[in-house]
């Protein structure tokens, strides 16, 4: 199949380009240099020229704290450009897989968020992504929207890579322990994308790894595993702290668990636990 991946330089976009190319697809990855999604140019027309069977939209304004002061830019990229990409998909008769986030939810629930729960984001980033989903659904009758959470992988910037660096530099680290979610490996997300596309799925799906963790739990696991794989580790102690001791511009959900019931049915596969996927990512990254 002919695929167009936007955000191809980002952590998920890069993984998607590599994995879909390895599976034999004809993949074009584009980044900001090819098409600036914050520009006033005709994004839809440019997208349509690729004549892709599927467009995988991994591009997004993802700087959660900075979005609080760059609201207009966040909405331009995450809502307006998402709409334009959907219009481009419509023009070229392409299917669109649009990636979204757990941060569209406010975290006030005590049970996993389901696909049809209403967004009540706490941050500019979350609201811009929620409105991006609505924009895509306004344009296309059968979009595929994949929400995921707490993403990490070999490419780009993420919590796991930051922790590995900090653990090699410092003896003690403080890590937030009152926000819970599910760390999710980019390779697993791209695997889920492949299944959804093969099955011609449409609508909203949630996909994360299995299990629940706080940022502290994730850091603790990295600290347990990394030295066994040869990573340089100086850190000896992790201190759990509440979010109130880690001031940030954007408010984040304290409870960020996505229900995967719908995804389990279509996948017909076991979803890996986050500890297993973390170990696999660390092992690959070490070699
Ligand atoms: N990271 C997470 O924890 C997480 C969690 C849940 C959902 N998601 C969603 O997953 C998707 C992929 O996120 P990610 O983690 O891969 O993010 P990422 O590493 O920040 O990648 C985002 C990509 O979007 C591109 N982009 C940003 N502004 C652009 C613009 N004006 N024009 C063109 N390209 C632009 C970036 O290009 P540059 O490299 O040039 O800036 C980057 O390649 C997003 O939809 C995000 O909302 C992420």
For this structure, what is the CATH homologous superfamily? NAD(P)-binding Rossmann-like Domain
In the CATH hierarchy, the third-tier topology is known as Rossmann fold
The main β sheet shows up as:
6 strands, parallel
Q: Strand percentage, roughly?
A: 15-25%
Q: Give the low-pLDDT segments.
A: none
SS element count, helices: 9
Derived structural class = alpha/beta
Describe this structure in words.
- The protein is an alpha/beta fold.
- The chain has one domain (2-158, 183-210, 257-272): NAD(P)-binding Rossmann-like Domain (Rossmann fold), CATH 3.40.50.
- 39% of the residues lie in helices and 17% in strands.
- It has nine helices and twelve strands.
- The chain has a six-stranded parallel beta sheet with strand order 2-1-3-4-5-10, sandwiched between helices. Strands 6-9 form a two-stranded parallel ribbon. The protein has a two-stranded parallel sheet with strand order 7-12.
- β1, α1 (11-22) and β2 (26-30) form a beta-alpha-beta unit.
- α2 packs across α3, α5 crosses α7 and α7 packs across α9.
- The radius of gyration is 19 Å and the shape is globular.
- The mean pLDDT is 96.
- Bound molecules: NADP nicotinamide-adenine-dinucleotide phosphate.
Can you describe this structure in just a few lines?
The chain is globular. The protein has one domain (2-158, 183-210, 257-272): NAD(P)-binding Rossmann-like Domain (Rossmann fold). It has helices at 11-22, 43-49, 71-91, 124-139, 159-169, 186-198, 215-225, 261-267, 274-286, and strands spanning 2-6, 26-30, 54-57, 95-101, 144-148, 151-152, 172-176, 180-181, 184-185, 203-206, 213-214, 237-241.
